[in-house]
Amino acid sequence: MPKTIVLIVAAGKGSRAGKSIPKQYVDLAGRMVLSRTIDAFIGHQLIAGIATVIRPRDIDLYRQATDEFGDKLLPSISGGKTRQESVHNGLKALQKYAPERVLIHDAARPFVEELLIGQVMQGLYSHDAVLPIIPVTDTIKQVADHLVSATVKRADLFAAQTPQGFNFPLILKLHEQAQNDGNSAFTDDVSIAEGAGIDVLCVDGGLDNHKLTTSRDMKIAALVLSDQQTFETRMGSGFDVHRFDPGDSVILCGIKIPFGKRLKGHSDADVAMHALTDAIYGTIGAGDIGSHFPPNEAKWQGVASSVFLKHAVGLVRERGGKMVNVDVTIICEQPKISPHREAMRAELSTIMEIDISRIAIKATTTEELGFTGRNEGIAAQAVATIALPTALE
Prior knowledge:
Shape: elongated
Largest sheet: 8 strands, mixed
Distance between the termini: 30 Å
Helix content: 25-40%
Structural class: alpha/beta
CATH class of the largest domain: Alpha Beta
Number of helices: 12
CATH superfamily of the largest domain: Spore Coat Polysaccharide Biosynthesis Protein SpsA, Chain A
CATH architecture of the largest domain: Alpha-Beta Complex
Strand content: 25-35%
CATH topology of the largest domain: Spore Coat Polysaccharide Biosynthesis Protein SpsA, Chain A
């Protein structure tokens, strides 16, 4: 199988997007544009590596954009003064990986699809250069001195896209020749191949594979993503029990309640918050409190249970999820819960950063049956509901 590497060109200023930072690092519906572009290639089975050409001054932005990919990327490459020079720098840097093919892609095209990538790679079995194209649908006019001079037949007109695929040794050689000749007039890499008389195979491009150039492009792209985003409802349940020990208060949902006993536990023994935390972990299949905060570790001795709850909520948000509502039931004969219910709801609202209307707290007894009925401890159960992003089928 020929070794293929993707070279993403992200060394431009992107000034036409009207942002204070280059457009490839602009936030687009929660992720940087470059992050989305890399993500389109990262899981492809036939791609051996991905490298990005950047401006050295943008290294901190690049790290932010690529942190989620860990060591899956090849080291970044410093770009040049022009796109052509940047690509040349990138190709030279890739020589040490000995690729047979290279796909050169614009960082500002985050909507490239797997099918299109596959078509370009397939075309490289028969040709040394492959170009994705889409037909021009608008009527094209030639204009001189602000007057129409001719109407151009659009039947043979097509717009070029990326990724453009090449035989690696050939495109490197052609870039080096262009560099040595001082020819920097090429607008894309296929133009260099054309100039050398190389046959370029054309494949169908993607209608959504737009290059984001202006601020309006960014706004439209954000709207498209928001329309495509769907959510699924997830539910999780939690249950916990703590026995009483001698003391003067209990902590429930973060509120200290004066009482003639305390709850025994490694942390602050907030049985209600523990049940809620496990319910939230359950919505994303993330284990339980013990798996994240082992009770045999001294550093969690006496820690506030809000630490656990914030961690669980944070995991949901890392996945793009939203808390819909939580429902906690505290089971005990004493102390009385109702006088403290609103304070508990307010405390959970603050910790979880959700509206108090999404939080329910109830209390019940077991009619003096069982260990809670004998005032040996307190039990709690909780249900959590979240909305989690899911891709469209």
